[in-house]
Amino acid sequence: MNTKIFFVVGLMVLVLIAAAFGGWYFYISKKQSEVTNESTFRGLGASIPSFDGIGGSLRGNMEETFTEGELVTKDIATSTTESLPPPKLWRVSKVPTAGVYVVAQKKTATAFFVDRATGNIFRTSPGKEPVRVTNTLIPYVQDVEWFDEKTLVLRHPDESGLGLLYFAAVISYPTTTPGSASSSSVATLQGSYLPKETISVATNPAKKSPQLLYLVREKSGSSIGVTSDIKLKNPQRVWASSLSGWVLSWVSEKQVVFRQKSAEGISGSSYSLSLPEKVLSSLIGNKDGLSVSASQSGDSFLYSTAINGKVQLYLKNTTSDHVLDITTFADKCVWGNGDTAYCAVPDALPETSLPDAWYRGEVHTNDRWFSINGRDGSVSEIVSPESDFGTSIDVVRPKMDPTGQYIIFTDAVQGTGWVLTI
User: What is the DSSP string of 236-249?
Assistant: First the structure.
């Protein structure tokens, strides 16, 4: 009798163990699928291209990975030896990029971009195949601040994956002609890491020699702003705050704009810092979900608010305030070299917590580009990627090239780099 009872109990235990392992297996499989889908959605699962030869990849690999169909326009070949002007809308690469820099030339333009997966830098021109510029491996680069085509700051995860590091680098070419087709081998990135406590970085857009401004979080939770050259020499303290949640942008040689990180229902403020005098003045204060985009002259700026999911864009200049007829975040706006701003405007905004859900990548928008007159606030549509080119784009991190001819931005869905010719 006891033997029979032990047998039945043992069999039941084995069944329970098998069921537990089976349930655990399906749970892990489901979670792994969710992680894989999320990683793919955010561009983290992009395959790393293989490369042969000192000059870059083979033709077939390059065409498949980077260039085929990249010119979003009509009647332009995807591979040519001629110098072609950039199309109205130009996708620089199919693979996720961490940042693009454009060098305007007389008849064409050259784009330098950082491959997000490897940190390698490539250059390309309309109708031509990309050429690898550097082979320094920096995995999972999230963002890049360019000073020029050979100087940049890369942001990437630390070894633990929990923190972020900033690497101020210069492209070191093996020949005297930077990035020329005659270069005998690829270049390397050489530079220094900013302090581990760095939380934000901006580059001076007008200085002839590279200059950085970076914010460092102190143990007390406060933050300080420091300027230095690209080699992190000659550091000077120019800013101090009891808070650390600041976003900064260097809009002109002598003006830096600070704003508190935006969130729905949270009142934020923005300030302008004049250099080298270190004079601080208020731009706008006590606005929920505040985001700001300032002109280079400092005379005008756009700002957006978000209250109970409703977003509104405003123009403020030296004479008046304007409520604009377009609805978008100021994060999607950039100023030209004059008094004209350009904004990517969603066809519709989802009914959810904004801008928080958009910042987190939980929702996306389908944008059209508008120009805004910085004097009177009048707006005019200039291009619709979906209607004109059959391409839906959620614009993030828009920047203006130094000549004011091109807007450089990233598609938040695919992580690809784009250039819009104004």
Answer: EEEEEES---EEEE
